[in-house]
Write a structure and sequence with these properties.
The structure holds two protein chains of two kinds. By secondary structure, chain A is of the alpha/beta class. Chain A folds into three domains: 105 residues, Response regulator (Rossmann fold, 3-Layer(aba) Sandwich); 76 residues; 131 residues, 2-Layer Sandwich (Heat Shock Protein 90), CATH 3.30.565.10. Helices cover 55% and strands 16% of the residues of chain A. Chain A is built from twelve helices and ten strands. A five-stranded parallel sheet of chain A has the order 2-1-3-4-5, sandwiched between helices. The longest helix of chain A has 70 residues. Chain A is elongated, with a radius of gyration of 33 Å. By secondary structure, chain B is an alpha/beta fold. Chain B has two domains: 127 residues, Response regulator (Rossmann fold, 3-Layer(aba) Sandwich); 61 residues, Winged helix-like DNA-binding domain superfamily/Winged helix DNA-binding domain (Arc Repressor Mutant, subunit A, Orthogonal Bundle), CATH 1.10.10. Chain B has ten helices and five strands. A five-stranded parallel sheet of chain B has the order 2-1-3-4-5, sandwiched between helices. In chain B, strand 4, helix 4 and strand 5 form a beta-alpha-beta unit. Chain B starts with a strand and ends in a 5-residue tail after the last helix. Classes of the chains: A alpha/beta, B alpha/beta. At the A-B interface, helix 6, helix 7, helix 8 and helix 9 of A face helix 1, helix 4 and helix 7 of B.
Chain lengths: 369, 209
């Protein structure tokens, strides 16, 4: 307040973030002495060491943190190490967190097996050999780091893909609108002018000229419309997904001679982005059917639930090989999956050679309109 | 007859004005650039026919038609749209429009449509009329092409698209003999004698482009 009164602003530099975040390691032992020893031993790794003196405490910490590795004493009062591990693993967030059990009882071979059953990844005998412990923990820290980095770059790629998809969609809509509205309307105006002129002409060759001009303008208008609809069907915005899917199915049948049967719900309007996503996926499915399936028939079912919209497209073609499904080059399929994922949905493709292909798409409906 | 012109494009409004000016019995009493203006002008000016662009900025075309119908049941709304009628006309008519024309329509057609709807009639283009008639017919019984199997339908479509037996055989990985057999069966089922008849049927029923 004083600073403000004197017109002075104090700016504090935010503390510099470490370039690499420290990995968290949890040490669990009921004996303070052992805990202290572990801490001393691992401090040279330069990571963030957290400690717990009981199973309960360990669980609480595991709830709020992602650990690179947990060192867990087997024998503890209350919840013992095995039970603690089981509970930690039961939670989704920590179900694959590496755990190293520390056991003092050399004869507890059976306990080791029990340990593996609850999903332990390793164990060490007490008293631990410092070098062994250090190198083991270091390996897990490194693994954790790599996984984190991988997740980050996956996340980045996904965001980039999402960005590109939405940019492309916006651009298409924009261009379609410009072409349709501006070009189309000017052509309409032009045609009216030519007709006006034609009405005043008496000369037959001249009238023939204006007639052919009109025909040219008509076919240009149709081309303009075709281009605009190809970029983004205006129906999607005017009438919604249900009408657009029905129209696209008819167009597909007309264009390919593959018979389409569409089962559609009553028309209703919902989130335009979800509609666009579903529609583009639908188009991609049909493209695949036309290109690869050799089908003679496609059955389409669009359903509108309370919380989600779902689409099922079944063809009677040659079916898809698992190999093809997982081949890196099937970018079209990957694209569909990514599009659906953007809205928390999914695309499932099933089928076997000779028995057609079934594609199921589910996308949750967003609450806001 | 008092006509209101509503279109957001000056070129189109100008064209319409010129076109209607020639007609003795038609007077343009107002011009609107968007749905809001249509509503405002309607309060002041008692037009008889509105020539309405389907998608102007602001209000959705269907909503505007409904609103006008509700407020002024005695007046006629004629939709003049860039959009093809097969997708939009029926909806516009259901919403209360007296007629639907695409902007490629000949000016004479527009003028006669205005006269017709002003008298309380409805106007549909011959193409739409035919389509509606076909739909009625289809509702009475199965259309002929529905009696075909999926494969036969596909072969029929290919013939109607002008493909030869050899081309069809190549594309479908079938022998020419098989394709010929399909063709014979298709013609029999559809009660036809030639490929030309098939083509004609397919075009009339919008099975091909």
């Amino acid at each position: 307040m004083n600073d403000l009164a004197h017109g002075v602003t104090v700016e504090t530099e935010p503390p510099l973030e470490p370039v690499v975040d420290k990995a968290k390691i949890l040490l669990v032992d009921d004996e303070p002495k052992s805990l202290f020893a572990l801490q001393e031993l691992l401090s040279t790794l330069g990571q963030n060491l957290m400690v717990a003196q009981s199973g309960e405490e360990a669980l609480r910490l595991a709830l709020r943190n992602d650990f690179a590795v947990i060192l867990l004493d087997v024998r503890m009062p209350g919840i013992d190490g095995f039970e603690t591990a089981r509970l930690i693993r039961a939670r989704d967030r920590s179900k694959s967190t590496p755990i190293i059990f520390l056991t003092a009882a050399a004869d507890e071979m059976t306990s080791m097996f029990r340990g593996y059953e609850v999903g332990a990844v390793d164990y060490l005998m007490k008293p631990v050999v410092p070098e062994v412990l250090k190198s083991k923990v270091a390996v897990f820290v490194e693994l954790f780091r790599k996984t984190e980095r991988l997740r980050e770059s996956e996340d980045k790629l996904r965001r980039l893909a999402a960005h590109l998809i939405s940019i492309r969609e916006e651009e298409r809509a924009h261009i379609a609108r410009e072409i349709h509205d501006e070009l189309g309307q000017v052509l309409t105006g032009l045609k009216m002018e030519v007709t006006w002129l034609a009405k005043r002409l008496k000369d037959k060759p001249l009238i023939e000229k204006t007639d052919s001009m009109c025909l040219l303008i008509d076919s240009t208008i149709q081309t303009v419309r075709k281009i605009a609809t190809g970029l983004r069907p205006e129906m999607l915005d005017d009438m919604g997904l249900v009408a657009a899917v029905g129209w696209q199915a008819k167009e597909f049948q007309k264009r390919t001679g593959i018979r389409c049967r569409a089962k559609l719900p009553a028309e209703s309007r919902f989130d335009i982005d979800v509609s666009t996503t579903m529609f583009r996926i639908f188009q991609e499915i049909l493209t695949n059917v036309a290109r690869h399936s050799r089908a003679t028939r496609v059955d389409i079912e669009l359903a509108l639930g309370e919380a989600e919209v779902s689409l099922e497209v079944v063809d009677n073609g040659v079916g898809i090989e698992d190999q093809e499904l997982h081949a890196k080059k099937s970018l079209g399929l990957l694209g569909m999956q990514e599009r659906a994922l953007l809205f928390g949905g999914d695309v499932r493709i099933t089928g076997s050679p000779g028995h057609g292909t079934r594609v199921s798409v589910n996308i949750p409906l967003r609450k806001s309109k | 007859m008092k006509v209101l012109i509503a279109d957001d494009h000056p070129v189109v409004r100008q064209g319409l004005r010129q076109m209607l000016a020639v007609e003795q019995d038609l007077t343009v009493v107002g011009e609107a650039r968007n749905g809001q203006e249509v509503v405002e002008i309607s309060r002041r000016v008692p037009w008889e026919v509105a020539v309405l662009d389907y998608n102007m900025p602001g209000k959705n075309g269907l909503e505007l038609i409904k609103e006008l119908r509700q407020r002024y049941p005695g007046r006629a709304v004629l939709v003049l749209s860039m959009y093809p009628e097969d997708r939009y006309a029926v909806r516009a008519l259901k919403a209360g429009a007296a007629g639907y024309l695409t902007k490629e329509s000949a000016p004479e057609e527009l003028v006669s449509a205005i006269r017709k709807v002003a008298g309380g009639g409805r106007y549909v283009t011959p193409t739409l009329g035919e389509k509606l008639a076909l739909e009625l017919e289809d509702n009475r019984g199965k259309p002929l092409h529905e009696t075909l199997s999926d494969r036969e339908y596909q072969v029929m479509w290919m013939i109607a698209s002008g493909k030869t037996v050899r081309q069809i055989a190549d594309e479908l990985f079938l022998s020419p003999n098989t394709v010929s057999t399909h063709r014979t069966r298709i013609l029999r089922k559809m009660n036809m004698k030639s490929n030309a008849e098939l083509m004609h049927y397919a075009i009339a029923h919008h099975l091909v482009d």
